[in-house]
Amino acid sequence: MLAGRLALVTGGGSGIGRAVCQLLAKEGAGVAVVDLNKEAAQETLDRLPKGNHAFSADVSSSSSVKELLKQIKTSFHMVPSIAVNSAGITKDKMMLKMDEESFNKVINVNLKGTFLVNQAVSQAMLADKVPNGSIINISSIVGKVGNIGQVNYAASKAGVIGLTKTAAKELAGFGIRVNAVLPGFIQTPMTDVLPKNVMEIILQLIPAGKMGQPEDVAEACLFLASDRSRYITGTTIEVTGGLFA
Ligand code: NAP
Q: Residues 153, 176, 182, 238: which is the catalytic one?
């Protein structure tokens, strides 16, 4: 479904990002696996067919993102026509006790990082006249409904939805689509740290009765990356098992 395409996947060293790398590669795309953690990115790369590459980059740094785009072009001799922004962090605390640093850090990685990659990738797509660009931003269902203890994270993910809708409007005329995926509770290292009693409460709220798997989110990304979604832009897809639908 993606033969001849190149995909840049941030957060590619773990969880959802890793599953996205594996599925897009299986569908024929070249994959630039990007993560802050180079070893984790390399571990993902080791599971992909030959010819792909791993990169270490900090999405919250504009110089790191610019350098990343240069390195990708040098390695693949083309620019990405697909970008999946899955890099993200949590630093949970009740709002009454949230320190400024935890707030800033989460906004910097989740929201500013998504902005920097959207901007750099779309600039590269325009410079190379990529005819069918697709950018997919991983937001979260809590960006829609909020979540106790996640005032920083929920704000960052709501921001990602606003960013996505704005970028989609600005870039549609250039043939670049921008959409967001809102996962619910997905089994990854990010949710592995949640206390058992909290997970039991969450499970009772999920109509499907179970957590999602990273592959469930990757399937939505594949659809949005491919030309099967060619007339879809500026929208969100919830992958939540019905939670808060
Ligand atoms: P994960 O397993 O923790 O993966 C996130 C990856 O992003 C990690 O490899 C992490 O590297 C990397 N990363 C962190 N900061 C970065 C930076 N500044 N630059 C580049 N990479 C960075 O989490 P996940 O569950 O797969 O989450 C992926 C995305 O889905 C995130 O945006 C998350 O907010 C979103 N999401 C997840 C869920 C869920 O239930 N799991 C639900 C809704 C939304 P390090 O390990 O080195 O930090």
A: 153
For residue 1, tell me if it sits in a domain. no
Cβ–ligand 1 distance for 138 under 6 Å, the answer yes
Domain of residue 55, residue span: 6-239
Q: How far is the CA of 175 from the centre of ligand 1 (A)?
A: 28
Residue 31 lies in a domain: yes
Strand partners, 53: 32
Residue 196 resides in a domain: yes
Which residue out of 188, 211, 243 has the highest number of ligand 1 atoms within 8 Å of its CB and is therefore the one to mutate?
188
CA of 18, closest atom in ligand 1: 26
Least Cα distance to 238 among 195, 200, 193, 207 occurs for: 207
Catalytic residue flag (residue 231): no
Span from the CA of 87 to the centroid of ligand 1 (angstroms): 4
Residue 244 lies in a domain: no
CA–centroid distance, residue 23 to ligand 1 (Å): 17
**Which pairs with CB-CB distance under 8 Å and at least 24 residues apart come from 140-146?**
140/182, 140/183, 141/182, 141/183, 141/184, 141/238, 141/240, 141/243, 141/244, 143/182, 144/182, 144/236, 144/238, 144/244, 145/244
Mean pLDDT on 220-245: 98
Looking up residue 45, the CATH number of its domain turns out to be: 3.40.50.720
Domain count, the chain: 1
Q: What is the mean pLDDT of the chain?
A: 98
pTM for the full model? Answer: 0.98
